[in-house]
Description:
- The complex is a heterodimer of chains A (515) and B (350).
- By secondary structure, chain A is of the alpha/beta class.
- Chain A contains 18 helices and 22 strands.
- The termini of chain A are far apart.
- The mean pLDDT of chain A is 86.
- With 350 residues, chain B is mainly α.
- Helix content of chain B is 75%, strand content 3%.
- Chain B has a two-stranded antiparallel ribbon with strand order 1-2.
- In chain B, β1 and β2 form a beta hairpin.
- In chain B, α2 packs antiparallel against α14 and α6 packs antiparallel against α11.
- The radius of gyration of chain B is 21 Å and the shape is globular.
- The interface between A and B is medium-sized, with 30 and 20 residues.
Amino acid sequence: MEKADYSQYAVVMKGITKRFPGVLANDHVDLFVKKGEIHAIVGENGAGKTTLMSQLYGLIRPDEGKIYINGFEKQIRNPNDAIEAKIGMVHQHFMLVDRLSVVENIVLGKEPVRGPFFDLNRSRKEIRELSKKFGLLVDPDAIIEDLPVGMQQRVEIIKVLYRGAEILILDEPTAVLTPQETNELFEILKNLQKQGRTIILITHKLNEVMAITESVTVMRLGKVTGVVRTSQTNPNQLANMMVGREVLLTVEKDKAHPGEEILQVKNLVVKENRGIEAVRGLSLSVRKGEIVGIAGVAGNGQTELTEAITGLRKVESGKIIFKGEDITNYSPKKRREMGMGHIPEDRLKHGLIKLFPVYYNFILGEHDDSKFSDGVFLKIEEIKKFSEELVKRFDVRPPKIDLLGMNLSGGNQQKVIVAREIAFNPVLMIVSQPTRGLDVGAIEFIHKTLISMRDKGIGILLVSMELEEIFSLSDRILTIYEGQIMGETTPDKTTPEEVGLMMAGHKLEDIRQEA
Amino acid sequence: MNVKKYLLNEKVIISLLSVLISLVIAAIVMIVIGKNPLVAYAALFYGAFGTKEAIIDNLMKASPLILTGLAVGFGFRAGLFNIGANGQVIIGALLSAYVGTLVGSYPFFLSIPLVMIAGMLGGAAWAAIAGWLKAYRGAHEVITTIMLNYVATFIANYVVNGPFQAPGGVPKSPSIAYSAQFPNIMSVGATSLSTIIFVSLAAIVVIYVIIQRTTIGYEVKAVGFNPYAAEYGGISIGKNVVLAMAISGALAGLAGTTQVVGVYGRYFGALGGSMGFDGITIALIGQNDPIGIALAAFLISSIRTGSNQMQIAGVPKDLVVIIQGIIIFLVAANRIIKTIRIRRRKEAEA
Lengths: 515, 350
């Protein structure tokens, strides 16, 4: 065998193969990442991107194949080996201890000490400096579980930087960021690149790939389907390599024909976990057959708003009226029975039971319906038949209904949730971050599904951190800032810049007055 | 699920290997103290299965252990650690004994169901207190069930020394009506095989069906695996915590009842023994699977029944406690066995 010279590469993965029960997640994958470049790995859900990176970071070990770091072969048996090789990873699902503070999470495993004592002050100072340097401002003493998803991600990024990583792996880092924050992140990444660091970016967003990377590896069904220089490709070509067919990157829809008001929220006040008011006197309404988009930066009360509407969080004051009935104090079950569907923001917390097989997850919330239960016994045959149909209709991969929820990729878990919520024919859908972390094909599918639901007369409240998604789907756009609505507009009467200003706390009338 | 798949299930293998390894370790201990492990195990086996009496004794020991094992195991399924099975056994036994003294004029087909329902309700209500405290007051069930064990013990001590005492000044209840007693299948010498064994066998089937096939089982498991998702799915966490505790308690209460109606014919102080705590051991070894629990209960009853014979053969009977301890240790720390297996598989491939 020839001895290749990999010294110009920060990372080389050669012939990586990884099998899971019934799935070939990586099939002889090669990856070449040059020193100091930003390299994107793109691909559909279940294409094996995260699996590949988990092997580089030592979370799982490859069945076959070799890894070279800076030209030398390295055995990466666990994350400690990876950290020693100066590899850091920011995961899609954050690896943070909820009950600990920001600073405690960041220093975890590398706690600074003074004599026998834990020197938290020193780390606090170091972290302040780091976060200032990279523009990732967080309160070092905040408790993780009180922070919104967007802030938690900042903590993850600082954590990796704190360990002095030279090679950074970021798994879907922009999924929860606003356009402004995304731009800031890109600035940081470019700075890091200038300082000679290497960055591997797992993403589905092709415009990001085009904006920031030097080269791209495209994966599909566990195999590499293309390696290109970013300057020599375009989003359409990448999308083709990802899904093996042409995809629509914009959503086609007709004008909405809204009917009567189905949901009214009046002067709603909801507290977050720390007891601070997160939703502060908010009012809105949703009519049948329209999509109302809530734009906003993560952590401005969206989570609390959707949880209050769906009955998962206590309402302090104000009213929620659904189908003309005051449901403010109704149980989640009652709301569901009245026809309220919910695609939750955090799929692993609320949406899915990881230790249930897929066919059990498909009936969550409907398990006591006469379709699936005779009152005492589950109709297992019917449930399985129903699940087989959904798996086919929503192209869940692998199409095995016996698989446990935890064994599906993130995108396929989301497909299971969306399929389930659509299948029970709701009249109102509360949709939160429906395409977070999904690939182009799945996003297209879910967007089309939401539009067709709207056209069937279902009212949809859509909360999304993706401005693009808000703009392409919504019939009306409300922008939320610190628990209040900054203004209502429609996609054709506004611009992303205007909404961006509202997301930063400016009222619509003030913006328009100034203009 | 077919038989082969079931047997090759990782959980089954972990339990089987745990038992095997613990027997080997105990054998090493015996060699260290200068005993012959082969002789000891032969005696243990003979003591548990060698005679008709031994087998009957063994089955009668296993019978209530199956029920308390199912009780604790069902709680685990809902994410609840019911340490209070002992108290639930006592309350169930007490209540069934009381009803048993009232049904003398009824035919057996009425009196037997009545005592059984009384025993199950007693255990269920006792456990539901802890369930309610957890669901609506946030009190941890480990604390409350332990406390309720003491309360149950003292209540029982009081009533069998006072209002519910049999004549003669002994702390035991009057004997229950003949029509409420379970008949014996056979008797050998002083030991009898009671029909209560069928109650335990039926409970295995019923619990298996509840867990695998019913809406209640679905909800209880959902709450146990992920309470957030359960709540999202419209499943009431509070209701299911109380319900799961009640079902768990009903099984423990039933264990107490079987001792009243099938073994002693009355309530007396030491009737429950430590069968509630043994239930924890058994649920762990049986990995919360009804069939696994039945086998684990039989394993524990076998080594206990056989231990006397082992003592006679000159090996201290306390050794079975060591065996039991090591099994639990290995099952609980199941990664030890998983690691050994993975390493062996890799070596085999290499």
